[in-house]
């Protein structure tokens, strides 16, 4: 009689790594999409433009397992967190407005408009990573 040996190995760690990388890529894609939305005309919810300094300063960052960097708003970002913002000192006044006035809400608009797409972006990224 012959003996057959079967060895089963778990690929759980590889699946977790691929999934984490796919989520990172998906969040990065959503961040790029959100920043693009801030470049719409002001009438469509984008950034008001005088010199273009504010609009051109808007950027995104995604936290990763290795942590954020010094370019992050607070030095580090939690894993899986997408942040969109700017370092221009007058941005808060434009975003929120002055007392009694209304703000442009270009960052809020971009986040709200990209949110429904983010789930699709993340799902597609994970499916591509896992071959699904």
Give the mean pLDDT: 87
Return the domain count.
1
Identify the overall geometry: elongated
Radius of gyration: 21 Å
Secondary-structure-derived class: mainly alpha
Strand content: 5-15%
Segments where pLDDT lies below 50 for 5+ residues? 67-74
Element order: H for helix, E for strand? HHEEHH
Helix content: 40-55%
| Largest sheet: spatial strand order | 1-2
Largest sheet: 2 strands, antiparallel
What's the N-to-C terminus distance? Answer: 41 Å
Explain what this protein looks like in three dimensions.
- It is built from four helices and two strands; from the N terminus they run H-H-E-E-H-H.
- The chain is mainly alpha-helical.
- It has one domain.
- Strands 1-2 form a two-stranded antiparallel ribbon.
- Helix 1 (12-37) packs antiparallel against helix 4 (106-129).
């Amino acid at each position: 009689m012959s003996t057959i040996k079967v060895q089963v190995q778990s690929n759980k760690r590889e699946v977790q790594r691929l999934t984490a990388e796919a989520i990172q890529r998906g969040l990065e894609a959503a961040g790029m999409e959100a920043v693009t939305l801030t470049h719409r005309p002001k009438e469509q919810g984008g950034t008001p433009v005088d010199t273009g300094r504010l609009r051109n300063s808007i950027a995104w960052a995604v936290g990763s397992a290795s942590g954020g960097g010094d370019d992050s708003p607070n030095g580090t970002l939690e894993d899986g967190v997408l942040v969109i913002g700017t370092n221009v000192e007058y941005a808060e006044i434009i975003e929120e407005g002055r007392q009694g006035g209304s703000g442009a809400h270009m960052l809020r608009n971009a986040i709200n408009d990209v949110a429904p797409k983010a789930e699709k972006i993340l799902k597609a990224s994970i499916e591509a990573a896992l071959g699904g």
